[in-house]
Specification:
This is Nicotinamidase-related amidase. One of its GO terms (molecular function) is hydrolase activity. The protein is globular. The chain has a single domain, classed as 3-Layer(aba) Sandwich (Rossmann fold), CATH 3.40.50. It contains 7 helices and 6 strands, in the order βααβαβαβαβαβα. The N terminus is likely disordered. By secondary structure, it is of the alpha/beta class.
Length: 213
């Protein structure tokens, strides 16, 4: 009797993954070209960074897939479709140019690509799914629930959340790890997303992981 060759072990599937969006110098650092409207002396800025760091540490502690999404363009912006104000303003400011300090991750929120299932994806639109392998990565890992956070709330966070929900994912927004230049816009975006996603703080989002196991 001929035995079939042993099958390779299947990698474990993860119900939940974390998306960390745009934690980059030009967007988050007080010397960045875009920023989120929070000065170095503003306690709110420190709170956002601390919450983002807690989310990243929590994902690592729980061995969750952790996907860092960064936005970056060529120095001449030939790869930037300037069809709306936010992209035209990016080029005008000379922001998030590839291979510059501004496009790099904020020091306290750096990815660790030596970890299994901790990845970095570059994109060039407002949704983290457009033009990236994000959906294929999540599908391969068996992910059905996303914890999403980043800057700015009303841009990459909301657009990625809406895209994820349309693709069938359950979504939790870690609100205290998100920010916008105007707190009213931040709050309005969170209210808008309540129709689609659970809005929680980082502690609650991490504590509820068992619900999605």
């Amino acid at each position: 009797m001929v035995r079939s060759p042993a099958l390779s072990s299947t990698p474990p599937l993860h119900r939940t993954a974390v998306l960390a969006l745009h934690y980059q110098n030009d967007i988050l650092h007080p010397d960045g070209k875009i920023r989120v409207g929070l000065s170095a002396s503003d306690p709110a800025r420190d709170r956002v960074i601390a919450a983002a760091a807690k989310l990243i540490a929590g994902a690592r502690h729980a061995a969750l897939p952790l996907i860092h999404v960064r936005i970056a363009f060529r120095p001449d912006y030939a790869d930037l479709t300037q069809n709306c104000w936010i992209f035209r303003k990016t080029a005008e400011l000379g922001a998030v140019q590839e291979n510059t300090w501004g496009a790099s991750f904020y020091e306290a929120l750096q990815p660790d690509e030596t970890r299994e299932h901790e990845l970095v994806i570059r994109h060039q639109r407002t949704s983290a799914f457009i033009g990236t392998p994000l959906e294929q990565i999540l599908m391969k890992l068996g992910v059905r629930h996303l914890i999403v956070a980043g800057v700015a709330t009303h841009s990459v966070v909301e657009m990625s959340v809406r895209h994820a929900v349309d693709l069938g994912y359950e979504v939790t927004v870690a609100a205290d790890a998100c920010a916008a230049a105007d707190t009213k816009i931040h709050d309005a975006s969170l209210d808008s997303m309540r129709l689609l996603a659970e809005i929680a703080d980082v502690d609650t989002a991490l504590a509820q992981l068992e619900k999605h196991a």
